[in-house]
Structure formats: structure tokens, C-alpha cells
Amino acid sequence: MNSPLSPAWVALAEHQKQLATFRMSDAFVEDAERASRFTLDAAGLVLDYSKHLIRPQTMSLLTTLAAERGVTTKRDAMMAGERINTTENRAVLHMALRNPIGAARTYAVDGVNVAPLVQHELAHMREFTERVRNGEWRGYTGREITDVVNIGIGGSDLGPQMVCEAMRRLVLPRMTAHFVSNVDGAHLESVLARVNPETTLFTISSKTFTTQETIMNAKSARAWFLARGGTEADVAKHFVAVSTNTKAVREFGIAADNVFGFWDWVGGRYSLWSAVGLTIALAIGMDGFDELLAGAHAMDEHFATAPLEFNMPVVLGMLGVWYNNFWGTTSHCIKPYAQDLHRLPAYLQQLEMESNGKSVDLQGNALTVPSCPVIWGEPGTNGQHAFFQLLHQGTSMIPVDFIAALDGGPTMQDHHRVLLANCFAQSEALMVGKSAAVVRAELAASGMSPEAIDALTPHKVFHGNRPSSTILLPEVSPRALGALIALYEHKVFTQGVIWNVNSFDQWGVELGKQLAKKIDGELQSGNISSTHDGSTQALMRRAIR
Ligand code: F6P
Fold first, then answer.
1. Would you say the CB of residue 516 lies under 6 angstroms from ligand 1?
2. Helix, strand or coil for residue 179?
3. Whole-angstrom Cα distance, residue 230 to residue 36?
4. How many whole angstroms separate alpha carbon 217 and alpha carbon 151?
5. The one catalytic residue among 352, 354, 378, 489
6. Cis previous bond, 305, omega within 30
7. 271 lines ligand 1 (CB under 6 A)
């Protein structure tokens, strides 16, 4: 199990060589069923993965690999509450956060059903968010809350922010959600410049409540509040916290009633379904938040029950492994053709790269094959006018996930049609390309001289045969978005199992934090330690004023 070079791995490597001359466009001609053969429906989403460098045999070999690596047993172990996050000795049960009351499946840690904990916290969220939204909860001068400022970073920021942006149409008209994550004071300053202390609620969101950026921003926000008329007694009306560390929250001075909890079996980057989603619920209401949970739950059930070959997250995960490990790709592009999903690439960067950006396996041995690729992207159509040149004609092959909603909403429907046309055109162009013969014919038809045609043709050729998936949502609704996020969560899990890494720890963030603390102390004191390298010492000297 330690070595990925199992029989299925070797067979896939052999199979990849046989596909050296494979052309996707030809495969569509040879197989009239290809589009439907490689399309899956699950939890309201459609995944078309027919524009990939695959034959049916590829998928069965990848499925054999996934089975051989234990995707099914490890999935079941995760869902059974086993402590699969071994380096932190924690269970991984974010699925429990979206398991509805009365569901057949129960999630338990150490034999204890976690549903009552989850339902209690959801009820607390509902009670609080309804009071804020209906105007019963008021600020210190008796005015209704109009602005929520979420202070958090990483998983305590990216998910809530991404969802709030995506759900902009559902946000309570009088409410604006703001997000402050960066320790750069410019971030907090720019948000505070837009809000009024009398009508602003701060949600301090931090799993650990020790994160430097969040605590510093929270303290500065409180100081701002106190300097603008609020008193210590008023803090309770304007500051709430979401954390697993209730002791630290109390020490910070937030009233016990204003603390929303969650548990160590919820990883930071998997936490938007917990009270970390409080800002989402404040913005769109608890019914909308429940819809988000319902969409994710539908995907959980699909992941838990569908055979590997027809399991949407597993298929997405296996395709990623196919390119990463057998075609040598090193990055993966996320292209939401939905402006409302513009923060999705940033969200997926943390989800995928913090989970699977590892170089040792679960047993601590060095990996002998590459793990997570670089995840990046921008919404379409903007990327088309920026980096698509490289996707189409650059020297590297970069698989793309195109994500689009079939219904763009009631307004500007002609815009939505053009958006979808562009989305479909890009995946088609990546696959079909344009041959030298076609380029020549086009240039000749435009009246160009043969010499000029010779000179220009190589620049206008698209080799094509570049892979992409297309994921269709019915619309950008809470339910569809919930399903989409859960799809990627389980994709990440699948890949983590295939690479045999722990997808649920993040030790790689620690060293920088340690050094930043040390350097900050030295910048404050002005005493630069000679233990730093020459470059760091010189940079520090420039920063001391
Ligand atoms: O430093 C990385 C990290 O621990 C992430 O995993 C996490 O989402 C983020 O920091 C924020 O952590 P916290 O919610 O504990 O403030």
C-alpha cells in the first residue's frame, strides 16, 4: 500500500503510452455514445468528462486503482468517525454538519452520535440570525444591524466569503457582509471606513482562536468600536465569536451567549457548514443556509453509495490523478463561468492545496510520485483575455474545470446566453484545436500571399487535444453550491487516498508562523538575531524605522 507502483498503477502507466496518439475529437467520431458515456448526474449537478484523454478502459483502470488504494474502505472509515486524521488524532466528520434530522445515516465519534451537538448549534444559529435579521437584535444606540464584518482567515474566511458572494441575490436588502482576513491593516481599515459602529456586528471566526491575523484584526476592530462611542458593556451587542476554543474566546471578552461552537472533527477548510457559516446565515437567512447543507448532503449520499466508476467526486479525483501522475501536468485551472462564483478558485486553492500539498505519506515515508497540483483560476470570460493564450497554445497541458449554471437568473438573459456560449466554445476549442491545413485555407481565403501564409501559419495553429471537465449547475442556488463544494471536498478526499497522504492536517503552515513571531519580536525590539540568514537580516534592517 505504501508504494503507489501497484499493478493498477503500472497498468495505467502502460495504458498512457498507448494513448500517445489518441485524439479526443476522433474518439467522438468513433464512439457516438462518448458524451453520454462520460457524463454523470448527481445531487442536481452534471459532470461532462468526455473531453478528456480517456477511453472506457482508462476509467476502468483508474477505478481499479482507486479500489486498490482503498477509496471505499477509507471513505467508510471517515464516515464511521474513525480518527483518519492520524497526525492530529482526529475524526473527520464535516458530513455530519449537513446530515438532516431523521436521516438514516448517523455520524458518531467514539460511539457518540454527534447529531444532538450539531442540531443544538444550528438552533442557536437560527435563533441568533433571526433576531438580527428581523431587527430585534439591535446595536448599542438601538439601531438595527446593517453590516456584518466577518473577521477570520483561511477556512474561517474563504468559504463564508465565497458563498456570500455567490448568494448575493439572496442577501437581506439592508444587510452587507464584509470580510477581513489579511493582517495588513489596509484590509480592516478599508472595511471600517464603510461601516458605522452603531449598526455593525463583528463575527470573529477562528477554529483555534489563536491565529495571529484574526486576533490582531479582532482587537483592532474592538478598539475602533470603543473609540467611536461604544462602551465595554456594548461589546456584547456587536461582537460574537465562532470557535472551538471557548476559553480563549472568553478571555478575549466575548460574552458566553455570543459564542458559537464547533468541534475538532471539523477541519478549518471544511468548516463553512458549521457555525463558521454564521455570516452566511446572517446574510441569506437560516433557511438558505439549510439549503446549502441539503445540497452538500445530497452529494455526501451520492459519494457514500455510488459505485466508484459512477461516483462523481471519485471520477473527478481519478481524472486529476490521471493527469498529475501519468501525463506530468503540474497545475489545474478552475474556470467558473459565473461571476457570482468568482471566489471559488481561491476557496478551492485552500481546499485542495492545504489538504493534499504533502510530500510524505500517512506512514511518514517520502512520496515517490507527485501529489497535489497547483490550483488556480479566474472567472470566465475574464480569463479568456488574460491567460487562455497559454491554455490553448502554451507548452504545458493544463486540465481545466469549466463550471457554469444553466439558468443565470431573471435579468440580462442575453448576457447569460453569451456567457454559456463562451464556456462551451472554450472547452471545444481546447479539444478540437485548429490544424495547419485549416489555418492555411482560412488565410488563403482572406487573400494572403503564400509567403505570408507560410510565415503566419505556425503562430495560428492550435494543437488541441487539451482536456477539460464541464460541471453544470441548474443555477447558482444554495442547494447547487452546497453540492458543488461537497463534490470538490470528496474529490480531494479521493485523491488523498490514492496518494496515501493525510488530507486533513496542515503542518506546512507552521514554520512560517513560528518565524514570523520571532521576526516580529526582533522588528519591535530592533535587535536582529544573527541566526537569520544574510538576506533576511538585510531585509529586516531595511524595515526597522
Ligand atoms: O494556518 C492555516 C490554518 O490553520 C488553516 O488551516 C485555517 O483554515 C486557518 O489557518 C485559520 O485558522 P483558525 O480558524 O484557527 O483561525
1. no
2. strand
3. 61
4. 7
5. 354
6. no
7. no
Residues contacting 332, CB < 8 A, separation 6+: 320, 323, 324, 352, 373, 374, 375, 376, 398, 399, 400, 401
Q: Report pLDDT for 253.
A: 87
| Beta bridge pairs of residue 202 | 149, 239
**Quick check: pTM over 0.90?**
yes
Strand order in the sheet with 259-261: 176-180, 147-151, 200-205, 239-243, 259-261
The span from the CA of 218 to the CA of 224, in Å, is 10
**DSSP letters spanning 328-382:** ---EEEEEEE-GGGTTHHHHHIIIIIIHH--SB-TTSPBPSS--PPEEEE--TTG
Separation of alpha carbons 522 and 499, rounded Å? 40
CA–centroid distance, 87 to ligand 1, in Å, is 16
| pLDDT bracket for residue 5 (50, 70, 90) | confident
Integer Cα distance of 127 and 41 in angstroms = 36
**Backbone phi, psi, residue 407, to 5°:** -105, 120
Of the candidates 49, 53, 10, 38, the one whose C-alpha atom is nearest the C-alpha of residue 397 is 53
Average pLDDT over all residues of the chain: 97
Distance CA 512, CA 518 (A): 10
Asked if 342 is an active-site residue, the reply is no
Catalytic residue among 17, 247, 385, 459: 385
Choosing from 244, 506, 511, 514 the residue with most ligand 1 atoms within 8 A of its CB, the one to mutate for a pocket test is 506
What is the identity of the amino acid at 511? L
Residue 357: all three cell numbers together: 500539498
Write the residue with the smallest CA distance to atom 2 of ligand 1: 509
For the CA of 513, the nearest atom of ligand 1: 1
Contact 44 CB / ligand 1 (< 6 Å): no
Q: Are 333 and 398 spatial neighbours (Cβ–Cβ below 8 Å)? A: yes
Which cell numbers in the block locate residue 281? Answer: 446565515
Phi, psi dihedral angles at 471 (to 5 degrees)? -110, 125
The number of the ligand 1 atom at minimal distance from the alpha carbon of 155 is 8
- Which atom, in ligand 1's list, is nearest to the CA of 268? 8
| Cα–Cα separations (whole angstroms), residue 228 to 193, 221, 241, 450 | 12, 11, 21, 74
Mind listing the pLDDT tens digit for each residue in 406-451? 999 999 999 999 999 999 999 999 999 999 999 999 999 999 999 9
